[in-house]
Amino acid sequence: MITHKTRCILILAALLLILPSDSTAQENLLANPGFESLGSGFFTDWNPGRAALVGKVLFSDEKEALQGNYCLRLVGTPGTWTTCPARPIAVKPESDYWITWSFKARQPGSSRTYLFLQTNLAQRVFPHTDQTGDFGWTHNIVKYRTAPGETSLSLVPTMQTAHEPPGTSWWDNVGVWQELPPDLEVEYRRQHPWDDIHDSTARQHQATDSLLLWGDCGEARIYPTTAAPPDDRRQETLRLTAPGRGHDIHQLVVTPKRKMEPVSLRFSEPTGPGAMLVESLRYRIVRCVPVREVRDKTFPLGPTPDPLVEPRGPEPVREGENTVFWIEWGPPAGSTPGTYSARVEVLSGGRAVAAVPLQLCRWGFDLPEVSHFRSMVLVPAYTIRQFYPAASEEDAFRMAWGPLGEHRLSGFNIALWPTVSLKEGKLQIDWTRFDHLVNAAKEYRAAAITLGPMFGGGAGQGWKPHPLAGLAPLADPQFDAVYVEMNRRMAQRLRQAGMLDRAYVYPYDEPEPDYMDKIARLCDLIHQGDPELKCLMTVAPQIAEPLWGKVDAWIVPSSSLNRQVIQERRAAGDEIWIYNMTAAIEETPLEHRLYMWRALGVDAAGALLWNS
Question: Rounded to a whole number, what is the largest CA-CA distance in the chain?
Fold first, then answer.
């Protein structure tokens, strides 16, 4: 007799046989992902056409396997890269794939172990998974979306070795998936719990016959077509909280239900435990830029909210389309702590059509006038002048210095140095521009200013320094004396201006191991000019041991943070900075907000942004 339970089991079994399965999507697309199949002395489907490297820098290893009998072992090659590419696999353009791998390494701090993708179009990297120094078995799960026209990819385990001694890395359980299998899905969700959080922070404030008034926090990216929150997500009063010299923000969104006259905002004067001027409240308009090209293929093209524009008058609005206002409250230093009340009114055609109460909580302390956390933001005056051709260099600088200074950032990563020349073999210095910009740094309370000349570097340029007063650095016999004297007098000038402690000499950008001795020599000459001058270098200290004891401030790439080496250099008296600050429009607003917290996580003295 067939029981009800048995009948259900049989029906379920039949359904499993006839229903389509997505198991194909959960299969590993990579051949020989666990390095278990060997042929002709090495792993099949790995390192095709490069047999000469087997037994020299590429090995099959039976002792260190994470699972199974074998794993891949790579040995670094000083001065270059060791790679072991997988046989390319076919992929679909503009499709999502999951890349997984396990690796470990025993390597010096100057060695880097990482995986990249070689596609038919380009190399794709995951810098947040790069590892330097020793580390145990680490499993990585990353999502990758293929670009238009991308039809093949190969996973490439890699070691980059700056110099002797080389390190060793081991690799196992490599994979490419269209969908993660259940065990990897669970692991990924455990590592990224925030991906499962879908509770929106947007709230309705007021609904009238003519408009819907709603808002969200500053971390939200609100497009013209972003859907408003439902009726059950309401917040009658906006609450903003800040200390003296601080600020808090909220995005207020006007979505017209019908045709309306242009819209503006008006604040009432706050009332509370003390005087609080209405000028402590302000707003700007969030405009959009047309994004046409992106690196992150998941980022949407088209109108993208980004620039904050000072209102020049009422803002035109369209029926059914969001107009976003960026509200900011900044209580002044010395104002009375406590809770204040105010209102923000929405005006259309000169009359109020909606209003939201504001609760302003002023904390009982002031932020310092000059931030303890230092910053260096490069402001490209030449780029600004392309849009404002009538502006002088200083005018262009001030367009950026003002907004940066309001938000406690220093736009003085300008590699400033005086105009120098040689006349009958003697150093001649014109201080006009130098003094002017140093005074501007004082005016804007810059926490840091970079000094030049920057002789070169960056983007793998190598040692190709620009001349100083016609002299080739470290090559012409006169150079050393001229450079020492210029730095001596520059330090003297800064000391008189009270800015020496905020100044950092930036002689070369992102130096490479093969000419670290030359960078060390430049640092020596700078300190001969004045021992109190600080040398800055944009390089991770673990790959720049020749500069230990010579560089005073390390600007460490966020992807190369070796905490052990950082602690050693800090204990030696060096400053630790990080870069680059988050600036790309493709980064989420939350990434921008979290950057400073990550800097605090390594107790960084400051942060540098190469180009704003």
Answer: 114
Give a yes or no: residue 11 inside a domain: no
The answer, yes or no, to whether residue 241 has pLDDT greater than 80, is yes
User: What count of Cα atoms within 13 Å lies in the side-chain half-sphere of residue 151?
Assistant: 1
Distances (CA, A) of 98 to 24, 123, 184: 14, 16, 10
Look at the block and give the residue holding tokens 């920057």.
454
Nearest to 240 by CA among 282, 285, 204, 212: 282
Nearest to 353 by CA among 314, 305, 312, 311: 314
Shared domain for 343 and 391, answered yes or no, is: no
Q: Supply φ then ψ for residue 194, to 5 degrees.
A: -65, -20
| Cβ 318 vs Cβ 252: under 8 Å | no
Query: In a 10 Å sphere around its CB, with 0-12 CB exposed, 13-18 middle and 19+ buried, how is residue 577 labelled?
Result: buried
Tell me the Cα Rg of the chain.
Answer: 29
* Domain of 123, in residue numbers: 38-196
Polymer length in residues for the chain: 612
* Residue 457 DSSP one-character state: B
> Helix crossing, 432-443 with 479-496: angle to 10°?
40
Q: How far is the C-alpha of 394 from the C-alpha of 406, rounded, in Å?
A: 18
To the nearest 10 degrees (0 to 180), the angle between helices 393-406 and 432-443 is: 20
596, 593, 585, 590: which is closest to 220 by C-alpha?
590
Is the pLDDT score of 30 beyond 90? yes
Shared domain check, 503 and 442: yes
Mean pLDDT of the chain: 90
Residue 36 banded pLDDT, cuts 50, 70, 90: very high
Closest alpha carbon to 525 in 471, 472, 485:
485
**Pairing status of strand 419-423 against strand 449-451:** unpaired
